Amino acid sequence: MKSKIIAITTILISNIAWSAEPVKPIQPANDINLALMELGKKLYFDPRLSKSGFISCNSCHNLSMGGTDNLPTSIGHAWHKGPINAPTVLNSSFNIAQFWDGRAKDLKEQAGGPIANPGEMASTHELAINVISSIPGYVSEFKLVFDNGNINTENITSAIAEFEKTLVTPGSRFDQWLLGDKNAISEKELAGYQLFKNSGCVGCHNGEALGGTSFQKMGLIKKYQTSNPAIGRAAVSNNDSEEYFFKVPTLRNIELTYPYFHDGAVDSLEKAVNVMGEIQLGREFSQEQTEQIVAFLKTLTGEQPSFDLPQLPPSVPSTPKPEPYK
Amino acid sequence: MKSKIIAITTILISNIAWSAEPVKPIQPANDINLALMELGKKLYFDPRLSKSGFISCNSCHNLSMGGTDNLPTSIGHAWHKGPINAPTVLNSSFNIAQFWDGRAKDLKEQAGGPIANPGEMASTHELAINVISSIPGYVSEFKLVFDNGNINTENITSAIAEFEKTLVTPGSRFDQWLLGDKNAISEKELAGYQLFKNSGCVGCHNGEALGGTSFQKMGLIKKYQTSNPAIGRAAVSNNDSEEYFFKVPTLRNIELTYPYFHDGAVDSLEKAVNVMGEIQLGREFSQEQTEQIVAFLKTLTGEQPSFDLPQLPPSVPSTPKPEPYK
């Protein structure tokens, strides 16, 4: 009885501990439709959603590499050089909106974008539907999963979004600390977290994903120097006051999602922290402070999504052919 | 006791049954060094072996798609159009040599080829070694796996080859039939197999992989019409008499490994069977015969390799950067 009370007390203290923090532990995915997720996983890995038959969602949001491609900007159809750094798909369900400029309201809307973007997968929704509809294995799976059995953009993107909802990364050392294991992070890492809070980083990088909760100006205090022409949120809202406002990126798994910023111009966490201090907070971190913050950031790597590589149902002779060179 | 005798007798009969056949069941992989295989799996999925940081072994030998890219010829660095159809990696350990022209004697030698091929991964062995050597997670894993701990081409390709040795596909319906389950295939499929044997297909497509055991002339009876300039084995041996000799491709998982032939020019199994009949055997199959053979071929799809998508150790700032556009 006594140990039970102690256990409950510990849980209460733990909950109080992190409920007072501006950062919350990542919750494992729940309320998942498993059949829909499995279908979405196949589609996520299926390069036949691209015109070339070569590029899948996983090409640029590679789940072996923190849900990114680790390139400054992505490679698209015909080796097109993308305009912006591919954000990680990990924990993207926590974002208030999708894309750096938030032009898609949710994962489902986002999933339709790259398929029809000439510089990314370069297909069309019509072609993608024709391809998927020609594949017997998909036809039966769509019938199984959807009441209407329809193969359309609505259902294709719903399935991909359902899979993406599962791509959360709980269990990081920092979350273990938030949940009450005071030995899960070192003193240096904890000092980094305190500094992260006290110096204002957490003003934007907060919530479960330490980001994704707001749009903020890149270069709040001092202009960010970049050759990248993206103007961010203003391109969506047509509101000049939102120029260079970008969705605050998540810091979860940040050790895996290099290079950093919307232009992918920075390779090291040290430099990223220093640039942020300078242009967002108007302060210069000492080397020790930078090391502490970076040490903290590296505690944010969670359990990566773990699943069998999916097997894709084969095309048949009537399936529209990939056209990499047209 | 009686049931035991019956069981043993059944096994003996089964063994006799298939030991008399020119096709053998695929044996599951054995004698595998697990740590070496796990390292090889990471390398197989790691696009940092390419100059662009975008192309991995799995890009063209996609294990979600029968170990191929399902393209006539592969897409390489800077969207280079490859010269020849990517053969499946599945069951490639059964091949007498690797590549269509057999220019690599084994999987290990093969694995080094694409890394340094300017039209494929476009890296160099030196660069690949520098990249892998810069990544702490790989450094420790190479130390764990190899006595000498060296990160060199020898060890990189050994690891990839060890993983590829595991990419066998036992358990197809046809193998179940070979192993004694007479209900595993239909009458039509069995008729297809008989025809496959009686009409001479099995002369080249034999052994565990139904292929991979010899080089044969493409167009033995009648010239194969193609715009593909590959001359096959003659390019390796400098022996004109081997012009258009290619390694006989495996028929295992043939339903998944379209399009067919070294030029990837044929999309349907029906057409592939008819072309083979015409140019290799000098005969024309009736529609019924074609359907029977195709039905048989579709029984050769085995259990696909099943494993967790690997997680790759992250680069660090000193890691040589991908250069997609140089």
Concise description?
The first copy, chain A, has 12 helices and 2 strands; from the N terminus they run H-H-H-H-H-H-H-H-H-E-H-E-H-H. With 326 residues, chain A is mostly helical.
Structure keywords:
326 residues, mainly alpha, Cytochrome Bc1 Complex, Chain D, domain 2, 2 domains, two-stranded antiparallel ribbon, 2 strands, globular
Structure description:
The structure is a homodimer of 326-residue chains. Chain A has 326 residues and is mainly alpha-helical. Chain A folds into two domains: 34-165, Cytochrome c-like domain (Cytochrome Bc1 Complex, Chain D, domain 2); 173-300, Cytochrome c-like domain (Cytochrome Bc1 Complex, Chain D, domain 2, Orthogonal Bundle), CATH 1.10.760.10. Helix content of chain A is 37%, strand content 2%. Chain A has twelve helices and two strands, in the order αααααααααβαβαα. Chain A has helices spanning 2-19, 34-44, 57-60, 107-116, 125-133, 136-145, 153-165, 173-178, 187-198, 234-237, 269-281, 287-297; strands at residues 215-217, 245-247. Chains A and B meet through loops of A and loops of B.
Write the layout of secondary structure elements.
2 copies of one chain form a homodimer.
Chain A: H1 2-19, H2 34-44, H3 57-60, H4 107-116, H5 125-133, H6 136-145, H7 153-165, H8 173-178, H9 187-198, E1 215-217, H10 234-237, E2 245-247, H11 269-281, H12 287-297
Antiparallel strand pairs in A: 1-2
Helix pairs in contact in A: 2-7, 4-7, 9-12, 11-12
